[in-house]
What we know:
heterodimer, A: alpha+beta, Beta-Lactamase, Helix Hairpins, Heat Shock Protein 90, 6-stranded mixed β-sheet, 5-stranded antiparallel β-sheet, elongated, B: mainly alpha, Methane Monooxygenase Hydroxylase, Chain G, domain 1, 8 helices, 87% helix
Amino acid sequence: MPLLQPQSPIAPNLSRGASARAWALVVALSVGLVVLGLTVAGRLAAEPAAAAILCLGAVSALVWLAGAPALKAALAKEAEAAPPAAGLPAEALMEVAEGLPDPVLVISGHDQGDFAGRRILFANLAARDLFRVPSEAMLLTAVRNPEVLEVVDEALFAGIEGQTAYEAGGVQDRYWNVLAKPMAPGPEGHCRALLVLRDQTDARRNERMRADFLANASHELRTPLASLAGFIDTLRGHAKDDPKARDRFLEIMAAQAWRMARLIEDLMSLSRIELNEHIRPSDTVDLTLAVSDVVDAMGPQAQGAGVAFDISCAPKGSAAVTGDRDQIVQVIQNLIDNAIKYAGRGGRVSIELTGSLTTEDAVALRKPHAARLSLLTPDHADERYAAIRVGDSGPGIKREHLPRLTERFYRVEGQKSGERLGTGLGLAIVKHIMNRHHGGLAVESAAGEGATFVVYFPMTRSIPPELAVSLTGEHSEAGPQIALPTASS
Amino acid sequence: MEHTVKAYGEELNNLTADVVRLGGLAEAQVTDSVVAFARRDLALAQLVIERDEKLDSLEAEIERKAIRLIALRQPVAQDLRRTVAAMKFAMQLERCGDLAKNISKRCLVLAEAEPLTPLTRSIERMGNLVAGRLKDVLDAYTTSNLDRAVAVWARDDEVDEHYNSLFRELLTYMMADPRTINSCAHLLFIAKNLERIGDHATNLAEIVYFEITGEELISERPKGDALQRVL
Lengths: 489, 231
């Protein structure tokens, strides 16, 4: 039983009795942070009392002045609202540390060889949120990255300040800069260090986006460009006086140019989504309305392709999710667009919206012989989900393609497919949007019976669960094990 | 007398802490080897190769400590499971480290040839998937979270499917253009190594399950379609 619980009854409880010390320490830390805030907030040197402490804060200020505008703003606010630091009661200082937007931890340790003895004395809200550990847990429960452990050790035992990059991992990748600073030893001679994390996700994403955009764009634009150049040569040469050939070539050239434009549009859209992927949207979107809007908008396209829709939607208000409306519309649009392409002339596309499902229900298999794969699974599956299923009556997708469907530019028919004009980015876009919404994506496919894509969004919590369940009674009765016929068939 | 008993608890905690540290190292090795491969970062690949020694010595130390603990304290029940699990865990993690080292070695060779961009991207994705599984199972171990361990165990399929798909594509590539056979063979092994790391993650999940419950996860893992019903 690893680190979280007080393992054997005989095991020493290092953290007991530490809370009083932790308190004193937190006060000390908070004073430091407020001072730092004052310095950053535009050097409010007007306060003569503060001037002395400002000197103390100068070193830390040097480190901080360079960046973290969010932190600066928050600290500035604190500083404005609060009287000079010396006069703040301990509780208020605690609140300051607690409310800082960046994760802040205080680590203690007494023996360099005793890794189990390194404890988290204090972790503010942001830190507890990031590491999902209670205060006073073992340090190793929260962090096991060797580089971070190394800078912590240096700060603890050698008194050296240091920093390193730290990648938290998980479905939503986040990058942090970890700063470890030595602190004065605690009452029992335990060494202590302050750990401050600063979010670097934006900067890292920007950097990667530029690199990826160049790599992807140059690779994928080469083919249509080469073909355009080829046709231009032909038009200048022997096709110059052949009006019939000229018209045909111009048509192909227009299609290629249109394809390039769409590719660039998709690439830009993907980059934009990726940049904000770690910022969860906050608006409320009614999926019922979103689905019906998209269906209305895509009606003409479906008609043109000779495809009919089968729609079954949860009633209005029963599938409200927290999300970005434009992006949700884009998800539905991309899925329906794909389904229309693969259903083919005379085919059918089924669209189904159900509210209040568990993850299991949301991705439950409908056809007994179908293969299914989860392409994105949310980190925490303890919520209720609203699921949209979009199925087509086409030939289905072979099993070996399923795991790679969301790969950029991965095309089921291979790279040479000219017949279906897709950019190969549609599902990648869907996946990234779903990740931003903390939702999931799964695909189900049976040879000859078509493919079905399921996206599920965590529902807005305002709907009481009892009410929500009754709305979808007919589905929960059937249970996830039984293959339900789709609403249309 | 109290002192000795206290020391026993400390020893157990220390053993677990060492395993978590080894886990952190193995995780970093796998992640870094994938990054080195995707970005053709030779310095990083070299670093991964050199760091492997650290994992080996830490694994040996854990084994020594565990044997010593068994010999001197004769742990029973939960304590015994913890000790045995620590040993088994360390062994699996060390293997993951070896595989990451092998990937890095192949990176050095691959860097001399022309890059095969789309394939590299696919393998990078598979690498991220595998690294994510390793992270999940280590999280499950440090927090004794049974559900997370079982989730890792049940999702073994994803990595396998990915591997199979890559395998096919690589074969097609080699048949189409024999000049790429040299590079593709290395890519094939890298994919295979990643798939093996995924298997180790599954084994680790089984060990976590055993440590917490004292029972074995049913030996027959759901495969293919059946799997998805468990999830």
